[in-house]
Amino acid sequence: MRFRHIHMLPGIGNSRFPYCTSLYVDDGPGLLIDTGADPSALASIASKVGMVFLTHYHYDHIRSVFSFQGADVHTNPIEAPYFADLDKLAEALGMKHVYGEQGISRWKQMLAEGAPNAPYSTAFCRIWLQLRRLRVSAYPLDEVIHVGNTKVIMLHAPGHTKGHSVAYFPSEGLVYTGDIDLSGFGPWYHGEDGDPDLFAVSAERLCSLDADVYITAHHKGAVSKRRFTKAVRKYLSVIKRRDEKVAASLGAGLTLKQAALAGVSYPPHMCRDPWIFMWEYLLSAKHAARIGIIPEVDKDWPFVFQCPLSTDGGHPSS
Ligand SMILES: [Zn+2]
User: Fold this and answer.
1) Does residue 245 lie in a domain region?
2) pLDDT score for 288
3) Cα–Cα dist 222/273, whole Å
């Protein structure tokens, strides 16, 4: 990139989940935006980083945050409280809605036991348990923040999560777009705190910024404004396709649970993972609301949080 003080640090595997691209501003105290990049690249700058900004609380954006013990860590004001309160975090992810308070208790117990048998909690259990040790402040949204001579504005861009923010560098004409990431998968607004309509508004807003370079947190990396704007249209069209898929499933008599298990955005074989199921269930409910269908309530809702998920009425499978 042609920017003197701003450096892009990719994640492993083309910055796919569970990594992301980070941005390092080598000015003033040294600012790192998101800590999901390749850990070896992050280690090489760790001693120079005095400040960390997290765009949102998802694991792939915070995974190496404990490598920056000396830095002041900030995130958006909506999600800063999640770091001290696992219940709030679990609720935002969707656990309370799908698995009830009991599901959250069960998840926390599994974390404490250290061996939850599910891919989305096994790898991450250490960081979830340690988050309360992290002191996280809130950065102001939509205001100029001076980092040495560099100006950055953390723009509130909700939809992916309620507090999701992107970093806009007005003098450089550069935007770090976080998880408005143009992936082939389409927009991710699956959590309890995600919203497809807000996601679309936020993505469109990015296109109207006075900027020439857009850096996505996953996959694409740095792209021109023209390419970003064109790709956003295609990316957002996935929302409509999901409307159609959910309409077809519910129209054929499936319940939300059955629609989720059949897969709306993830392949069906992944949907017995309790996390993926949770997000497909919430996604199905959101799209049902968008298209004006009131689905029947599944008899075993809220479901039992277990790995793998039971498909036969919520009782632990053998
Ligand atoms: Zn995310």
Assistant:
1) no
2) 98
3) 33
Q: In sequence order, what are the beta bridge partners of 145? A: 152
- Per-residue tokens: 159: 């939809």
Note whether residue 226 is domain-resident: yes
- What is the CA(215)–ligand 1 centre distance, in A? 15
SS3 of the chain: helix, strand, coil, percent, to 5: 40, 15, 45
CATH of the domain at 206: 3.60.15.10
Domain assignment of residue 37, given as a range: 6-83+134-238
Backbone angles phi, psi at 60, to 5 degrees: -70, -10
State how far the Cα of 100 lies from the Cα of 104, in Å rounded to an integer.
7
Number of domains in the chain: 1
CA of 61 to the centre of ligand 1 (A): 7
CA distances (Å), origin 283, targets 33, 208, 263: 28, 28, 10
| C-alpha 204 – ligand 1 centre gap (Å) | 18
Residue 52 pairs in a beta bridge with 32, 73
Instruction: Tell me, yes or no, whether 106 lies in a domain.
Output: no
In a domain, 193, yes or no: yes
Length of the chain: 318
Place of tokens 């296109």: 207
Q: For the chain, what is the radius of gyration of the CA atoms?
A: 20
CA angle 187, 119, 256 (to 5 degrees): 55
Do 275 and 118 meet the contact criterion of CB atoms below 8 Å apart? yes
pLDDT, tens only, 145-191: 999 999 999 999 999 999 999 999 999 999 999 999 999 999 999 99
Task: Output the CA 160–ligand 1 centroid distance in Å.
Answer: 7
pTM summary value: 0.95
Each residue's pLDDT tens digit, 117-147: 555 555 567 788 889 999 999 999 999 999 9
